[in-house]
Design brief:
Layout: H1 2-22, H2 25-80, H3 84-193, H4 205-230
């Protein structure tokens, strides 16, 4: 039994949430206003019915008054003709009509009083309906404005979140682009220095040799520049045997030249 109660409570809570999401206060206000108009229309129909009944009584009362007057004239004429029996009969009928007329007057007064009450109630209800209509339109306008503001805020919030994701993506793209640019520059430098060989282009041995010669010439120029910065001085001594075949170097096994006698010796 406890489990069934829990299921019932969960179902009602979920149903209430669904109803809350589906409910639109503007539709509820319009429905309430429509119901009030229907009630007002019923009151007006009641007033019209009472007025119709009152008018019908007025016609009946007028007919009875006419008949009563006619019987009175007939009784007067009968007495003038010494016909008391006819005069008495006429007056008797007139008395019955007066009784009916008195009852109709009471009903007429009651209907008239009821009509006045219903008319006043209709006027009050009309004023309330008009005030509710004004209040309803004000609430609807306020709710519509609040709903629009909420949608705008939600849109801005969604845009902000999306722009955050876009900014992160842009940052990643910029980082990857910078990394690729740095890598491409490093590869270009390695290709230019000859550390890497470009297999994508045609192999040209002559061009490679010319590039190496150009590189050697650049080195020699750099050596000359450094020597110029050092200035004139005693050149560094060459290590014996490091440059064989160089001019002025002693060759192994070669005869040493004899010393020339000095001038004036043994003269």
């Amino acid at each position: 039994m406890g489990l069934m109660k829990r299921f019932s409570m969960i179902f009602r809570s979920k149903a209430n949430r669904v109803l809350d999401r589906a409910e639109d206060p503007r539709e509820t206000l319009d429905y309430s206003y429509q119901r009030q108009l229907e009630l007002l229309q019923k009151v007006r129909r009641g007033v019209a019915d009472v007025a119709t009944s009152r008018k019908r009584l007025e016609l009946q009362m007028q007919q009875l008054e006419q008949q009563s007057g006619k019987l009175e004239d007939q009784g007067r004429k009968a007495l003038a003709m010494s016909r008391e029996d006819l005069a008495r009969e006429a007056l008797t009928r007139r008395s019955g009509l007066q009784t009916q007329l008195s009852e109709l007057q009471q009903q007429y007064s009651s209907l008239q009083s009821e009509e006045e009450k219903l008319t006043l109630a209709s006027q009050r209800l009309q004023a309330k309906v008009d005030a509710f209509r004004t209040r309803k339109e004000t609430i609807k306008a306020t709710y519509t404005a609040a709903e629009a503001q909420t949608q705008i805020n939600e849109a801005f919030s969604g845009i902000s979140e999306e722009m955050g994701d876009v900014g992160f993506a842009i940052q990643r793209a910029e980082d990857r682009t910078a990394s690729m640019q740095a890598r491409a520059g490093a590869i270009d430098e390695l290709l230019a220095s000859g550390a890497l060989e470009d297999f994508t282009g045609p192999r040209d041995d002559i061009q490679a040799e010319l590039d190496r010669m150009g590189s050697g010439a650049d080195v020699e120029l750099e050596m000359q520049r450094l020597k110029g910065e050092l200035g004139p001085g005693e050149p560094p001594r060459e290590i014996e045997g490091t440059q064989s075949g160089a001019p002025g170097a002693a060759q192994p096994g070669a005869a040493q030249p004899s010393q020339q006698p000095q001038q004036g010796e043994n003269t």
